[in-house]
Structure formats: C-alpha cells, structure tokens
Amino acid sequence: xxSKILIANRGEIACRIIQTAHRMGIRCVxxxxxxxxxxxxxxxxxxxxxxxxxxxxxxxLRADKIIEIAKQSGAQAIHPGYGFLSENTGFAEACExxxxxxxxxxxxxxxxxxxxxxxKAIMEKAGVPLVPGYHGDDQSPDTLRKEAxxxxxxxxxxxxxxxxxxGMRVVERMEDFDDALAAAKxxxxxxxxxxDMLIERYLTQPRxxxxxxxxxxxxxxxxxxxRDCSVQRRHQKVLEEAPAPGLSEETRKAxxxxxxxxxxxxxxxxxxxxxxxxxxxxxxxxxxxxxRLQVEHPVTEMVTGQDLVEWQLKVAWGExxxxxxSQVKTRGHALEARIYAEDPDxxxxxxxxxxxxxxxxxxxxxxxxxTGVTEGDDISIHYDPMIAKLIVWDETRDQAIxxxxxxxxxxxxxxxxxNIRFLHALADAQPFREADLTTGFIEDHxxxxxxxxxxxxxxxxxxxxxxxxxxxxxREVVSTDPWSPFGRQNSWRMNSEYAQPLQLQVGEEIHxxxxxxxxxxxxxxxxxxxxxxxxxxxxxxxxxxxxxxRISIHGNLHNDQLVLFYEGDxxxxxxxKESYGFEEMAGxxxxxxxxxxxxxxxxxxxxxxxxxxxxxxIMEAMKMEHAIxxxxxxxxxxxxxxxxxxxxxxxxxxxxxVEDTEANQEEAG
Length: 669
Known about the structure:
By secondary structure, the chain is of the alpha+beta class. Helices cover about 25% and strands about 35% of the residues. The chain folds into six domains: about 5-105, Rossmann fold; about 130-200, Dna Ligase, domain 1; about 205-330, 2-Layer Sandwich (D-amino Acid Aminotransferase, Chain A, domain 1), CATH 3.30.470.20; about 330-450, D-amino Acid Aminotransferase, Chain A, domain 1, CATH 3.30.470; about 460-575, Glycoprotein, Type 4 Pilin; about 590-660, CATH 2.40.50.100. The chain has 18 helices and 39 strands. The strands form nine sheets. Strands 14-13-10-11-12-15-22-20 form an eight-stranded antiparallel sheet, with helices on both faces. Strands 24-25-26-27-28-29-30-31 form an eight-stranded antiparallel β-barrel. GO terms for molecular function: ATP binding; biotin carboxylase activity; metal ion binding. This protein is a component of the acetyl coenzyme A carboxylase complex; first, biotin carboxylase catalyzes the carboxylation of the carrier protein and then the transcarboxylase transfers the carboxyl group to form malonyl-CoA.
C-alpha cells in the first residue's frame, strides 16, 4: 500500500480523504493557496505546500506545480478529489508520465467521458439507452438551431465538457434559443475552456437516479446501489438519498448492470458514477458519467457500510475489488444535505463572509458531518460556497428524514447567509416525505419551501431582548458588594422604577422596546403589548418563559448583530444605535452588485432607454453567472465598471434616471 499520497484539492473532500488515508496508515501531503493558509485540510495533513494565489487558476488548477510538489515531497500517488483537476485528461497523463499513480481512472477513460457528445456515442454503441437529442461536432448556430427544432421543446442545452450545472440552460421555445445558446456557450467557455454544446429533449417530470460503480485493474466491475439526486436547483444537487425511493428491484438491477456495462465499455478503473434520467413510466436514459468520486458518495457509504475512499486507494494500488456483486448489501436509508453559503430568498445568490459562529450537530452512527471549515474561517469568492455536507442514516426513510430535520435544527451558523432554513423546510415538506420527487421539485413547491417564520415578530423581539440583557449581565464587572445595584447595566435608578429602552432593527424597521427588570424576571413592552419574561443564558443557549410559554433557543451576539436559532428557523436583528448612521448603498434608480464577483458583460450604454427587468449586467461569482436587471424603466446615465472588473457586494454598477410614470401619464392625459 502507498506510504504517502498528495491530495490535489481543498475543503471538505481533502479532509475526507485525509481521514481515511490516516486510518490506513498513509501519510498525506496537502497543497494550499494564499486564501487557504490556515484551512482545516492544511492543519490535518502531515505536511503542506503553498501552491499560489487565491484564484484556483493560479493554484489548485496548476497541474505543473502539483506534479512538482508531489515529486519533491516523495508522494507516490495523487488523489484529485472532485472538481479542479479530477476529470482533467492532461493531468492524469502528466501523473502517468512522472511515475505518479493517479488515484482515479485511466486518462483514456476520462477522455472518453469528458466529452458528453462522445460519451453518448460510446453508450449508444454499448447498448445503454439515450435521451433523444443532438451530440454532433458541427457547432454552427444554424445547425444547432435546426437540431433544436428537430428535438422539440422544451429542450436542454448542455456544455459538452460541463458539469455541476454550469453551461446549462433549459429552453422552452424557439424565440429564446439564441440568447440561451449565447449565455450557455459563454459560461461553458469560462468554466471549461470549451464552448461546445449538446442538445437533449428535456423530460418534464424526470427523476435523477445515479449508480455508484467501481472497477478494478483486472476489468471486474460492481455497482454499489443507487442514489436519488432529483432535488436540485440550477441543475445542482441540493439533497441526495440512497436508496432511490420507489425503485423496483428489476429496475435497480437493470440500471446497475447498464452502469457497469457503461464503465467496462471504456475500460474504467476506480470509482465512477453513471447518471440516468428516470421517467415516470419507469424508463431510464443515460445522462452522463462522472469519472471521479461524487460529492454525495457518503450516502452510499452509509447504506453499504463501505468506505469508498479506501476502495479507491486499494484499487489504485492494484488490489482487486473488496467485494463481488453478490456480496454488496444495503441496509437502511441515508440522506445528504449540502449546506451552502447562499441566500435562498435572493434566488440562491452565493454569499461570502466570516463564519463568526458555527455549531454543528453531534456526530454518531446516525449523523455525520463532512466539512473543511471551522469557526472563524472566511467563505470567499474564489471557491465553491459549500460549507459542509450533513449526512444522516436510519433504518427507514421516514426515520432518516426525521433525523435530518433534527440535525438541521442543530446546525447553526452566524456571520454568513446559508440555506439551512431552506433545507429544513425541504426535508420536512410533505411532498418530499411522500417521495413525490422530480428534478423540478423546488420550483413545484416554492410556497412550502419558503415558509413564514415559526416565531411571530413580537415574541422574537422579546427573546432577542432577553438574550441581549442576559449577555450584558454575564459580562458585568463583579462589585465588591454583590448586592450593590451600581455595578449593574440595567439603568437602575434610586427611588424610581425605570424602564430601560432598547431599540432592535429588523430589516429596515426599528422597534422600540422598554424593559423593566424585577428580581429574576423582566417586563418587556413592545408596542401596546406587555410580556412577562424570565430568561437564563448559558453561553449560546437560552431557556426562556414568555407569558407561561417555555422556549429554548440558541443565539449569537457579535458587534450588536444578533442571530437567534429556533427549530431550524433564524431571527436576525441589530441592537440599534443612532450613531451608526444607516445609509442606502445605492439610489432608487441604480443597480447595485448583489454579491462580490467579476463583471462578465455590460449590455447597455450611457444614453440607452431601458425597461424594468431588462438584463443590463452579467456577473460571475462562485463559478456561476448571474443576470443583473433594470429595477425600473429609465435612461442609463452612468456605467461605473467595465467587463473583467472585480466588484464588491453593494457597489453601484449602473445609474439610471428613472422615468416618472405618473408625470408621464398626466402629460399624456
């Protein structure tokens, strides 16, 4: 077995690989960019080498530097993880040329599946069912337009070299085809260096079911059950589970055998995933093959009891597969939720910030957390915004869902926006519990997945006041006289009962509270209502009783920014001080950047007449494009950035002189 390997990756997958390698007695070499100097994977590795600046193109994608460091460190093999260079044919070839074992498939297999159009041709020859569409080499717009008409609508434009939802567009009608094609080509070229597209019929109610396959160097292959990854947004998986609910044993076997046949058709070695679209009538079609370990591999590990990274290392060393097909058994049900730094209320815009507070559920045989971050780390614009993967297991699907809901309630983050509340609503939604799954699940159930807060505003404000006051008490300077009121921070006054004021800002609204403190309880006045409150704070955990209702919450107060966590829900507010001087970052007729990122395209000029909803700027952040649209009808008066410029969240991009609609109507009258 290898004695030392290099891990050409970062974040949670690097940490995941290190854990198994260390358990097997293998030393690990990490690489890190300037942004990751203090990252968790660096601390976990036996040794680590600086590889370049923060942008991945200058660090984690530098194959030459990684090869050089591997040789310098004495590593015998390189594990690419997923993303970055994991499916890069040139990198696999470079490893082979430098006598380094690439812990993955042969470069020929990566090349065969790297082009989605070529992969379709191979699968068709191997007898694997395909979705109707166009996978040809002629990429002229006229040809693609004609093939789109043949295929019919709705259709899916997909980057030939793509993955992760990038370079992909659903087109509902011919009128939208040209714009969608241009955007998909541009995004594909930026992400993969290849703008070529393939076209597929877009199935309206499909499920995304994938098979975990494994092959050894002797040509043996097995499948380790399947995963359902239907719950997606922007073609990126959000919640995965194994096994796929409602799949018959016959279909499971047929899919598994087709997946192994697909892998053996390209002389595959190692871990791979064959992805299928599963239609309502029980038919399934080959979609693509990922020639690497998948993000969602832990759910397969939880139901099979196997360590897939260990399998990868053994197969790469030349050992046979640990199990034959008849020995592969599954037990129970597992789910994985991807916890992202993003804002679901703003169309899942990627978020950046500091993880100033991070509390995760306790790990056990039922709960697993795969992460590459710790409290205090920054989520930057340079890499994928995934914070962690939360994986749960139990005997049945219903029990596993209950585990997931509970674990999400125990996952608490402050300092950066996350999708935890959204995931909680998703896992707890009745259609999900009933396994009513399609790839359009999120769009079909938006009202269920974006529920109102479980806490009414008044009750949340009372709890916030209790948290603020109790934390102030815990930080009071202890007086030499423990009974003296003069050391307290409750605005105590001699010979009078004084209600101390507290202003809490929620969004744009400022709430004026008044609080009387009496012995071990408070009276909190909010508007015309009075609440009797008792509260006890222990670090971040507060037990409170409001008018006889006992509630337990967690919270984090930092620089007057307070976040409360309650049953998967969050309540954010600011302890308001007028001296703060809250100001608008941009005027009514301006476009402000919704996130940190780069300007990809400016689609307007000074003097242009624009209409509300018209795309004026395209930004790229977290490797995805985002259209910034005009907020109202008007005329462009200034443009502050050019294509290629980096901008910060809140920066004014374009100024628009907004039309006065009422005045125009009066003139017209």
